[in-house]
Structure formats: structure tokens, C-alpha cells
Design a protein that fits this description.
It is a single chain. The chain has 329 residues and is of the alpha/beta class. The protein is built from eleven helices and 15 strands. Strands 3, 4, 5, 6, 7, 14 and 15 form a seven-stranded mixed β-sheet that branches. Strands 10-9-8-11-12-13 form a six-stranded parallel β-sheet, sandwiched between helices.
Length: 329
């Protein structure tokens, strides 16, 4: 089958189309003919050999695949050939076919295009679990989302609004401000402002009437995380999702004590492996909100599989607003 094949770890722009053997199907797996695959920031790290989980080479990258079931394993009772599904994988989505655990596959609503289904996997799951499972979100709370122009950040803004919260979009550069507002942001917070340590807090206080952020969903780390922690409300909850800014921050726990702040982390794939029932419930809720019109993935562009390197390179630049989706039709 055709696939993006990683023989040796390489810069994102260097990935190429090649061939891999057709995948086998285990007893608890389904074989999917892929129609669309989302490009996620972890894919950029995987192809370079910088991610915490690296597949044996050669392999096809890609963590979200939407398509049609071609065959089901002997012990699969939830799907049959012809079903439209989205699969959430550790790798393998950038290929014509992929085998996936049935427990990691989800039926796509009838009216949902494959491109939307692929784009509403990893990033929406990550945002949902960060907000609800780790952040303990309650309707009416103010949520500061850093990296709000990215995949997880864009999804988080929409979910916060869909569930009745106040969404504060942390972005760098005015070019992303209008996109954040279109996604539902109640206020835009400039995370590249001078004197960030104080200016970020002042922006958040102004946007919340002096209250501060009840929840911080941070995808950046570095100086932004340090400053955002100071903008939190009493009994605020901070969730570390990633470190796209480069530096892994360190927390002075005396500040947590003074304001009763809690800090947690999220590795979403652990839930996929350990508590798949929670992942299923989250995906059903995400699709329900989509069907109600409360969620809609912001797709920056759809590209053919052969141009995966272009999409990965753009994502690595940090200048993308929305999702890149690869199509295989």
C-alpha cells in the first residue's frame, strides 16, 4: 500500500511517499480504508525522533484516521465492513490502509465528512480531557487557553464555549486574533506582550472583571506558563498539555500554597490505553456537540497524502491557524 514511510528520522519537509506491506488484522482489530488523516504537532516530533513514544522503523506516522471498515477481526462485535469510523492511533494514519483496535475506533455521524472526523480526534480529545477530567471545569468558569491558534487550543476554545464557559484565547500576534474570536473567544490575551510577567495578569484580570482564570490549559510552557500561573484565580487549576515554546517550566510551590492553586498534567494517550470507556464517552459528546453546531473544526487546508511533508513543515513553523488534513481519495 502507499504510505508516508519513515525509514530514518528526518526533518518534517523531507518525508516522502513510499510503500509498506498491507496491514494484518488481529482478532480485536478492524482494517480501515483511510479517506482522511489529520496532521498533529506530535507527528512533527515523531518523524524527527523527538517524541516520547517512537514506533519501530519503517513506519507510517499519523494519529487520526477516518475511513471505512474493510474487515473486522474474529472477536470484534462493534463494527462491520462498510461502517464509517475514525480511529485514534499511536501511528499509521498516513497510509491507504490501517489496522486499529476496535476499542480505539468511533462511529462517525452520517452527515460528517471524513475530513471533519479526522480533524476532531486527538486535538478535541486532548482539549476535552484537559478541561473536564484534569481541570474539573464547571459551567460559568473562565478558562485561559494558551497556544489558542493551534489544534488543541482551537478545539479548547470551542469546547469551553459549548459547555458554558468564558474562553480567553492566549495568542501571539494580531493575525490570529480574529480567528480566535470566530472560534468563540470572549477575549484575546497577547502572550507576546512586553513585560509578560505582569502584562498577562493584567490582561486576564481586565477580561474577567478582576477575578482571574479559573482554569489554565497550557500548550506552550516557558515564560507563558510562568506568567499565566500568576493570572489564576483563587483555587485555580492549571493543566500542562505541552511545551511548544521549548522550555519546560518549573513551579514555585509556595505560590500554589498562597492561592490554593493546583497543577496537573495530561498525557491523553494513557486514557486511550487505560480507560477506553472514558475516551468513548468523550468522543460521543464531541460528536453530539458537532451535530448541534456547537463544534466545528477549523481546517486550514486539505492536501493529498504526497504533500504530507509540506503540512508537517508548516505545523513545525508554529504559524498555522487550524488543522491540516491529508486526503487519500
Amino acid at each position: 500500500m502507499k504510505a508516508i514511510v519513515i525509514h530514518e528520522f528526518i526533518a518534517p519537509a523531507g518525508v516522502k511517499l513510499g510503500r509498506l506491506p498491507d496491514p494484518a488484522v488481529g482478532d480485536h482489530e478492524v482494517l480501515i480504508r483511510v479517506h482522511a488523516a489529520a496532521v498533529n504537532f506530535p507527528d512533527v516530533l515523531v518523524v524527527q525522533g523527538k517524541y516520547q513514544i517512537l514506533p519501530p522503523r519503517p513506519f507510517a506516522p499519523g494519529k487520526d484516521a477516518a475511513g471505512v471498515v474493510m474487515a473486522a477481526g474474529a472477536k470484534v462485535t462493534t463494527f462491520r465492513p462498510g461502517d464509517r469510523v475514525v480511529a485514534q492511533l499511536e501511528y499509521g494514519a498516513f497510509a491507504e490502509m490501517v489496522s486499529a483496535k476496535a476499542a480505539s475506533c468511533f462511529r462517525i455521524p452520517d452527515a460528517m465528512p471524513f475530513e471533519d472526523a479526522a480533524a476532531m480526534g486527538l486535538v478535541y480529545q486532548t482539549a476535552y480531557f484537559a478541561l473536564k477530567e484534569r481541570g474539573g471545569f464547571r459551567a460559568g468558569e473562565a478558562v485561559l487557553v494558551t497556544g489558542a491558534a493551534g489544534g488543541v487550543g482551537s478545539a479548547a476554545l470551542q469546547i469551553v464555549k459549548a459547555l458554558g464557559g468564558t474562553a480567553l484565547a492566549g495568542i501571539s500576534g494580531t493575525e490570529h486574533a480574529e480567528a480566535a474570536r470566530q472560534l468563540g473567544a470572549d477575549a484575546v490575551i497577547d502572550v507576546a506582550a512586553p513585560d509578560l510577567r505582569d502584562s498577562l495578569r493584567e490582561q486576564v484580570r481586565k477580561a474577567t472583571g478582576g477575578h482571574g482564570a479559573d482554569i489554565l490549559l497550557d500548550t506552550l510552557g516557558g515564560d507563558v506558563f510562568d506568567a499565566a500561573l500568576r493570572a489564576m484565580a483563587w483555587c485555580g487549576r492549571a493543566v500542562a498539555i505541552g511545551f511548544a515554546a521549548g522550555r519546560i517550566p518549573e513551579v514555585k510551590v509556595n505560590y500554589l500554597l498562597v492561592k490554593n492553586i493546583s497543577v496537573s498534567g495530561l498525557q491523553w494517550s494513557d486514557y486511550r490505553e487505560r480507560q477506553p470507556e472514558k475516551v468513548l464517552a468523550a468522543q460521543q459528546e464531541i460528536f453530539r456537540l458537532y451535530e448541534l453546531g456547537a463544534l466545528k473544526p477549523r481546517i486550514a487546508a486539505t492536501l493529498p497524502l504526497a504533500r504530507a511533508g509540506e503540512a508537517l513543515e508548516k505545523l513545525a513553523s508554529g504559524q498555522v491557524s487550524g488543522k491540516y488534513v491529508l486526503t487519500l481519495d
